[in-house]
């Protein structure tokens, strides 16, 4: 996959994109990331990319000319069909489902803005708008990093184990079950006995129950979007009827 990022601050990406999974993905030739300085597409000696808003108001607005020229120029750099995405608080909320959809594309163009946002006419040149959450950030660079990381993990061959992303939180609409590793007991708290049993069928049942429990307790809103089996519904009913102290003990003892 090729990802082009249009930004005023390309230097911000150096650390996150030169470490860990993203670095290995690039070294394997599975991910190709290019940065483009929006200021390079201005035509004045001061490289101005923003101006005051018509109608008055606080802050500055990114001008349409350099942004649109950058989009058009970058699109010409590859024949691959691209999806152009504006990173904006007005966009649809980013999710694991959207990440999976984008991971199927051969090319993404991400536009990271600053100031009070973009001149509205820029929106005629994009395919989509995405927000990573209902809060305010200084610019679109951090959202771009989040999207690239989430999407890259889903590209075949990027993760060491083909199943690694399948059971992660949000991948199936539920939060992930608890994880344990050595030692078998830490400061008086043991690993749930079921995980030491070697009974993989029972371990799978335990993990599903714990995923349902954790989601129900921490993100009950997510359950509405999950295809729950009859067994899942029974498990949730049983969990909801248990006293809180019993539920906490069960998750530690298995």
From TrEMBL:
Residues 212-221, 244-254 have a biased composition (Basic and acidic residues). One of its GO terms (molecular function) is tRNA (guanine(37)-N1)-methyltransferase activity. It catalyses: guanosine(37) in tRNA + S-adenosyl-L-methionine = N(1)-methylguanosine(37) in tRNA + S-adenosyl-L-homocysteine + H(+). Homodimer. Its EC number is 2.1.1.228. NCBIfam families: PRK00026.1 (NF000648), trmD (TIGR00088). Residues 212-254 are annotated as: Disordered. Its main location: cytoplasm. It comes from the Bacteria. It is an enzyme of class 2 (transferase). GO terms for biological process: tRNA N1-guanine methylation. It is found in: Cytoplasm. Specifically methylates guanosine-37 in various tRNAs. Transmembrane segments: none annotated. This is tRNA (guanine-N(1)-)-methyltransferase. One of its GO terms (cellular component) is cytosol. Residues 1-223 form the tRNA methyltransferase TRMD/TRM10-type domain. Keywords: Cytoplasm, Methyltransferase, S-adenosyl-L-methionine, Transferase, tRNA processing. S-adenosyl-L-methionine binds at residues 113, 132-137. Belongs to the RNA methyltransferase TrmD family.
């Amino acid at each position: 996959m090729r990802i082009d990022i249009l930004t005023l601050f390309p230097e911000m990406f150096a650390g996150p994109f030169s470490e860990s999974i993203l670095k290995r993905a690039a070294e394997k030739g599975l991910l190709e990331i290019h940065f483009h300085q929006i200021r390079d597409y201005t035509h004045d000696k001061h490289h101005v990319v923003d101006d005051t808003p018509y109608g008055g108001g606080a802050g500055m607005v990114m001008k349409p000319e350099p942004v649109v020229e950058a989009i058009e120029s970058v699109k010409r750099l590859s024949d691959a069909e691209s999806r152009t995405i504006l990173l904006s608080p007005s966009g649809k909320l980013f999710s694991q489902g959207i990440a999976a959809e984008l991971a199927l594309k051969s090319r993404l163009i991400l536009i990271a803005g600053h100031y009070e946002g973009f001149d509205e006419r820029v929106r005629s040149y994009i395919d989509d708008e995405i927000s990573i959450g209902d809060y305010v950030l200084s610019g679109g660079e951090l959202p771009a990093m989040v999207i690239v990381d989430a999407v890259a993990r889903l590209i075949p061959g990027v993760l060491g184990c083909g199943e690694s992303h399948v059971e992660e939180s949000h991948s199936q609409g539920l939060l992930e079950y608890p994880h344990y590793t050595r030692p078998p007991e830490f400061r008086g708290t043991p690993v749930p006995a079921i995980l030491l049993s070697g009974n993989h069928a029972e371990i799978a049942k335990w993990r599903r129950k714990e995923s349902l429990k954790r989601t129900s307790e921490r993100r009950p809103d997510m359950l509405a979007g999950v295809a729950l089996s009859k067994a899942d519904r029974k498990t949730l009913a049983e969990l909801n009827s248990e006293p809180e102290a019993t539920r906490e003990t069960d998750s530690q003892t298995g």
